[in-house]
Give the backbone structure.
Amino acid sequence: MRKLGLDLGTKSCGFAITDESEIIATGLENFMFPELEFDHVIERIKKYLIEYKNKIDGFVLGYPLKISGDKSDRTLMVEEFKIKLENEFNLPVLLVNEQYSTKRAQETMISAGLTRQKRKQHKDKLAALIILQDYLEYYKYKWGK
């Protein structure tokens, strides 16, 4: 089975997916949608479920905490979206601390020599990949695997 990773923002969502053995993660896309209209993200996830023939058995959602560990408005937004995901798909959702995932994504792309425009196009997808890779390396066995 596979996990679908998400890096949710107010106007974009990065998607990544694991292989069926849950060993590696691959970035899928940087999906843009109208601000705070998360039903578009839900519809996109439905397309992924069809594309991957319902072999997605859970979601790994980036969880944005402040450096202090406190919650922000964005944290609350992600918590609300988590509930929406669980209700819509009846699949488990694991929140993974996404601290520095976007920064790590930016640094990786700068090192690769990508232009500012290319970095903007790919940053959320790469952040989702980093979040999902963190799940594979640190959280997978805590989640019942």
